[in-house]
Write a structure and sequence with these properties.
Elements (H helix, E strand, L loop, with lengths): L1 H17 L32 E8 L9 E11 L4 E12 L2 E17 L2 E16 L19 E15 L3 E8 L4 H5 L4 H4 L3 E8 L1 E2 L4 E12 L4 E11 L3 E11 L15 E9 L4 E10 L10 E9 L14
Antiparallel strand pairs: 1-2, 1-15, 2-3, 3-4, 4-5, 5-6, 6-7, 7-8, 8-10, 9-10, 10-11, 11-12, 12-13, 13-14, 14-15
Length: 323
């Protein structure tokens, strides 16, 4: 079993050499601003109305074995908005490996000032790590390190977060992968897949003109053994219907190794759009273009998101509710 599991670590290591600045264990998204539940469980119920959100990301499109990620999330509030509930399913495929998680989320929101709220969120569930040897193409047949059939390993998981917001400002801090580490360590997998990961997000929204708002924000990500990764975002809202903006992704700190010398200063730029098709339905698209030394070796990344409000929502956009 341990030899089979170690194959997963080897494959992920290859992926990290291809794109080391994205060495986060958790999948990467460019449209998290439209559903911050991706990076903070305390966001559950933030939109007040029941909301279903799905995202598909094709990273490095056309590159063999590149990551493909799909998510389905739902959340709603209760007790006049003081409690939030959520559920999420995620699948991330990289080469012959798969990461799947299923989580339930609870958030409690308290009033801490005039139209200012602080939420504490907790999500719990299970994560499964697997390798499918049928998707491998080994150089030599009969490799003892390659399992004969699909190998699965499941572990419990817990995420926690804080989220503050008022009419114009928001900030959140969260920690992921808080449980299951000891079980995975017994399979030599804890450091490869299940290290603690931290997120810090903050931003504000302000009017530029009567029909245009601007929302700058930053997301900082940290996991042990990798540089601190950050996204700088600027989004514009036109006529309370269309979001257009961009994100710059890079990092502080350096990896070790000569290959990293050309990778540590720049990473990617994402162009982001989201359209309110109706009062209940929204659709988003983003395109990521790499701007490091590997930019000519693979195609960009495409991400599509769909969101649907289960109940009629009020169109009040001049606050940070519309993340």
């Amino acid at each position: 079993m341990k030899k089979s599991i170690k194959v997963i670590i080897y494959l992920i290591g290859v992926c990290l050499l291809v794109h080391p600045l994205e060495a986060q264990q958790l999948p990467q998204f460019s449209q998290y601003l439209f559903n911050t539940l991706h990076v903070n469980p305390a966001y559950a119920g933030y939109k007040v109305d029941g909301y279903i959100h799905s995202t598909f990301r094709d990273q490095w499109s056309g590159f063999p074995g590149a990551p493909r990620t799909m998510t389905l999330m739902a959340d709603f509030s209760a007790n006049e908005g003081t409690m939030g509930f959520g559920a999420s399913i995620l699948n991330d495929r990289i080469g012959a490996t798969d990461f799947t998680s299923a989580m339930l989320t609870y958030a409690y929101r308290v009033l801490v000032g005039y139209e200012s709220f602080l939420s504490l969120g907790l999500s719990a569930g299970f994560s499964q790590y697997s390798i499918d040897p049928s998707r491998l193409n080994p150089f030599d047949d009969g490799d003892l390190l390659i399992p004969d059939s699909r190998v699965n390993l499941m572990a419990p998981n817990i995420n926690a977060g804080l989220f503050f917001h008022n009419e114009v400002f928001f900030a959140g801090l969260s920690a992921y992968n808080l449980a299951g580490r000891n079980l995975l360590r017994r399979e030599d997998l804890s450091l490869g897949f299940h290290d603690f990961q931290y997120f810090l997000i903050t931003g504000f929204i302000a009017p530029l003109t009567y029909e245009i708002d601007i929302k700058p924000s930053i997301l900082v990500k940290y996991v042990n053994g990798a540089p601190v990764n950050y996204d700088l975002n600027a989004m514009f809202l036109f006529k309370e219907t269309l979001w257009l903006g961009a994100s710059f992704r890079s990092n502080w700190g350096e990896w070790s190794g000569s290959l990293q010398d050309d990778l540590t200063k720049r990473n990617a730029i994402a162009l982001i759009m989201e359209l309110f098709v109706s009062d209940s339905f929204r659709v988003g698209y983003s395109y990521d273009h790499n701007i490091n030394v590997l930019e000519n070796l693979r195609n960009g990344s495409h991400e599509i998101s769909l969101g649907y409000y289960l109940f009629q929502k009020k169109k009040v956009f001049r606050n940070s509710r519309w993340l």
